[in-house]
Write a structure and sequence with these properties.
Blueprint lengths: L1 E5 L6 E4 L8 E6 L3 E4 L9 E3 L8 E4 L2 E6 L8 E2 L4 E3 L22
Parallel strand pairs: 1-3
Antiparallel strand pairs: 1-2, 2-5, 3-4, 5-8, 6-7, 7-9
Length: about 110
């Protein structure tokens, strides 16, 4: 079974330790424990929601608010640019979901 790492007992997201496919059960390790069903594919080292995160509420990792849910997030969902607005970097809202590249920068 694949695993996700919860860094603090109050975090509402955990980090996946290897890519996870939608429908896979994953074990929560670290400061929380349990089993969660991945609702979406989640790339390695990305965040998975551990609990419901209503739109407009905080996303917590390492006991630190890292952003605000830009839409309702359900447990097992990939938490990334499509549903998270950073509290630190407003520019990241315009980054490409897959590559992280910004549309206003030439990478050639």
């Amino acid at each position: 079974m694949k695993r996700v790492f919860a860094m603090d007992r109050d975090d509402n997201v955990a980090t996946v330790l290897e890519p996870v496919a939608a429908g896979e059960e994953v074990e929560i390790i670290g400061e929380q424990s349990g089993i969660i069903l991945a609702g979406t594919d989640i790339p390695d080292a990305h965040k998975i929601a551990l609990s419901p995160i209503p739109r407009g509420t905080g996303v917590f990792k390492l006991a630190t608010r890292i952003g605000t849910a830009s839409k309702d997030v359900v447990p097992g969902e990939w938490v990334h640019l499509q549903n998270l607005q950073s509290d630190y970097d407003q520019r990241s809202d315009g980054a490409d979901l897959k590559t992280g590249q910004f549309g206003d920068v030439s990478y050639g």
